[in-house]
């Protein structure tokens, strides 16, 4: 691939353009908002000038509701040898293109499983896709050259290709992406009218659950409108669990021993099923999840603290597998939770204590 046209210079389109441009591909940028394309170009994602001839690959990075129309226009204009989109749903756009009577040999649907709470070109980064799954949904009609161009794009973005059926993909993202967004927003919505004394008690748990609730509502309405059925199916299952759990909690407050016992059993069951589901979430580098030990260190809110901890861990020969920070409300301090292999935890604790760090149990 020597040339590419990225249509849609939001977060995903600009990030892909940055990755391609950084690896020597000549990238042209286009957007319904010329200012967005100019911003992406100023960031080094390519040029906002139109290509003079046919490019190797056209990447359509517009909302799902507009994907088929933009694709059809580009294909009829013959702007590229191959075409792909990065919309978060796959079955709908393909059916729309088929209904338009287009030859889809030059097209492949794709979806990079990466994103942020922020949107727009200024949120883009060249490493957004590194190590993340990038779904490809070829059909028997897909030209081999187009599939190879898509695989080259994934490789240049340093993502991990995953081949799926389009409708299976839509059911999967309903479960692992679209429903979590709605549930996160629903939990966060409970905070809107909450008493200030309750909000001040927010800890890491509520921050984890509500992190993605900061996403752009308009963008998510478009995504959910393109995949409503599968999301509703997943939510129906969640709703059934919620209904049973509410009844169980009422039972726990009952004077009836039988209702209390049944409530306990129901709640324990949903928590255990949650444990079993959580274990299936892939761990580091997509491998099976590993049970890490956590070393908690109290740090001050000042420059260089994290770097110093990481450096001390490196001197002790300990590899940090993951890290999270829990901020102390109203204080200039925080708790850094460092996840390491179980055998490395005692080594890290000893090394950090020796260097004066405050370890918390």
Automatic annotation (TrEMBL):
Q: Where is the Prephenate/arogenate dehydrogenase domain?
A: 2-289
Known catalytic reactions: prephenate + NAD(+) = 3-(4-hydroxyphenyl)pyruvate + CO2 + NADH
Give the EC number.
Answer: 1.3.1.12
**Keyword NAD annotated:** yes
Give start and end of each ACT domain. Answer: 294-361
First-level EC class: oxidoreductase
Q: Entry's PROSITE patterns?
A: ACT, PDH_ADH
Which is an annotated Pfam family here? PDH_N
Q: Which InterPro entries match?
A: 6-PGluconate_DH-like_C_sf, ACT-like_dom_sf, ACT_dom, NAD(P)-bd_dom_sf, PDH_C, PDH_N, Preph/Arog_dehydrog, Prephen_DH
| Biological process annotations from GO | tyrosine biosynthetic process
Pathway note: Amino-acid biosynthesis; L-tyrosine biosynthesis; (4-hydroxyphenyl)pyruvate from prephenate (NAD(+) route): step 1/1
Q: Please state which protein family the record places this protein in.
A: Belongs to the prephenate/arogenate dehydrogenase family.
Q: Which NCBIfam families match?
A: PRK06545.2-1, PRK06545.2-3, PRK06545.2-4
Q: How is this protein named in the record?
A: Prephenate dehydrogenase
Q: Which organism is it from?
A: Streptomyces violaceoruber
């Amino acid at each position: 691939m020597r040339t590419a046209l990225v249509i849609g210079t939001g977060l995903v389109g600009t990030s892909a353009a940055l990755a391609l441009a950084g690896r020597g591909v000549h990238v042209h940028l286009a957007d319904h908002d010329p200012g967005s394309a100019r911003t992406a170009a100023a960031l080094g994602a390519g040029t906002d000038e139109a290509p003079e001839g046919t490019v190797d690959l056209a990447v359509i990075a517009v909302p799902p509701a507009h994907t088929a129309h933009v694709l059809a226009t580009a294909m009829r204009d013959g702007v590229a040898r191959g075409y792909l989109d990065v919309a978060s749903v796959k079955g709908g756009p393909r059916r729309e293109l088929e209904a338009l009577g287009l030859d889809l040999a030059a097209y492949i649907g794709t979806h990079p499983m990466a994103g942020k709470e922020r949107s727009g070109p200024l949120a883009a980064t060249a490493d957004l896709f590194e190590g993340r799954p990038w779904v490809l949904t070829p059909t028997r009609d897909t030209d081999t050259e187009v599939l190879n161009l898509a695989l080259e794009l994934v490789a240049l973005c340093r993502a991990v290709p995953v081949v799926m059926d389009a409708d299976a993909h839509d059911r999967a993202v309903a479960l692992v992406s679209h429903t979590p967004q709605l549930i996160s927003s629903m939990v966060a919505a409970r905070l809107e009218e909450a008493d200030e004394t309750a909000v001040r008690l927010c800890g890491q748990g509520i921050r984890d659950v509500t992190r993605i609730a900061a996403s752009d509502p308009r963008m998510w309405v478009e995504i959910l409108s393109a995949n409503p059925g599968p999301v509703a199916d997943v939510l129906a299952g969640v709703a059934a669990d919620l209904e049973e759990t509410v009844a169980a909690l009422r039972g726990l407050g009952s004077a009836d021993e039988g209702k209390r016992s049944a409530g306990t059993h129901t709640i324990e069951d949903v928590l255990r099923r949650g444990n079993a589901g959580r274990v299936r979430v892939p761990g580091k580098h997509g491998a099976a999840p590993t049970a890490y030990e956590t070393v908690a260190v109290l740090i001050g809110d000042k420059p260089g603290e994290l770097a110093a901890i990481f450096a001390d861990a490196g001197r002790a020969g300990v590899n940090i597998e993951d890290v999270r920070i829990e901020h102390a409300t109203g204080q200039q301090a925080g708790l850094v939770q460092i996840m390491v292999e179980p055998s490395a935890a005692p080594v890290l604790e000893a090394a950090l204590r020796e260097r004066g760090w405050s370890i918390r149990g």
